Amino acid sequence: MNAAIGIGTILVLVALLILLVIIAKFFMTWLRALLARAPVQMRSLVGMWLRRVPTGLIVDSRIAAVKAGIELNTDPLEAHYLAGGNVYQTVTSLICAQKAGIHLTWDRACAIDLSVRGTDKSVIEAVQTSVNPKVIDCPNPKSGKVTIDGVAKDGIAVKARARVTVRTNLDRFVGGAMEETVIARVGEGIVSAIGSCDSYKRVLENPDVISKTVLQKGLDAQTAFEIVSIDIADVDVGENIGAKLQAEQAEADKRVAQARAEVRRAAAVATEQEMKAKTQEMRAKVVEAEAEVPLAVAEAFRNGRLGIMDYQRFLNIQADTQMRSSIAQGGDAGPAQGRKEE
Length: 342
Fold this sequence. Notes:
It is a single chain. By secondary structure, this protein is α+β, with helices and mostly antiparallel strands. The chain folds into three domains: about 1-130, no CATH class; about 135-240, Tetrahydropterin Synthase, Chain A (2-Layer Sandwich), CATH 3.30.479.30; about 305-340. Helix content is about 65%, strand content about 10%. The protein has helices at about 1-35, 40-50, 55-65, 75-80, 85-100, 105-115, 125-130, 180-195, 200-205, 210-215, 240-305, 310-330, 335-340; strands spanning about 135-140, 150, 155-170, 225-240. Strands 1, 2, 3 and 4 form a four-stranded antiparallel beta sheet that branches. A hairpin with a 4-residue loop joins β2 (about 150) and β3 (about 155-170). It is elongated. Mean pLDDT is about 85; it is low at about 335-340.
């Protein structure tokens, strides 16, 4: 009986010792929250410790929120920390939004903080941009381009550089397109506005034509920003793109015409060669036919269808024909005349 009482006493003492250690561990944190009128229960502190949640961060964040007039329990702060969010920045952004008169709920702030995790953005920056609009250069200097080039209807290129003033839209920040999309849309709008002008002179005289045209397109739709203004910082005249394209087109047409002429020339040369081949072929046939004449005469002699006088008259007629041809050509018909005299 005494042994059981002793064991029970030891267990009670151990429990009291553990309780004292826990109280000593979290007493300063608990007291700090109590004095700041943002009390936190001791069991909540123990639970945070068991869940490996930094109690100091959660308590300090709750104290800051309560001091700013925002009532936040430790449970949503713990949930946001366990989700991988930045509790301190989220609470700070909530306080900044309240001081600036911007309606921002805790859930919306948590969603924004989680959406920018892993980027160079932060929920505080989003709230600050909503209060103080920032300026975005278009085009982005990091892209390597200095100006946005457009071509007016008269073919003259116009180089423009714009500065876009934007304000964060907290309601569309989660899931909305970021700065790159805004820059791309503004650049597209500038090119379209320059292209719709009849002359580059109109752009130089009234650069606000570009900004007005671009603003009317509603380029901030489905983005995390609201476009406050688009200011044309610089406008310059570029190359005569129209004349350059016409020259290149003329050169291309020239090459096409030369190619077609070369095709026709090659076809003519081929036709000429073909006609020469046909002429040689016909001449060969004539020579072949002339070679058959003596054979036919000899055959006529053997068959008795041709006499010697007939053959002599044939030779006289042939000689006379050659003489006439030679006289007509201004040549000598000596052999033919001698044959005729014989």
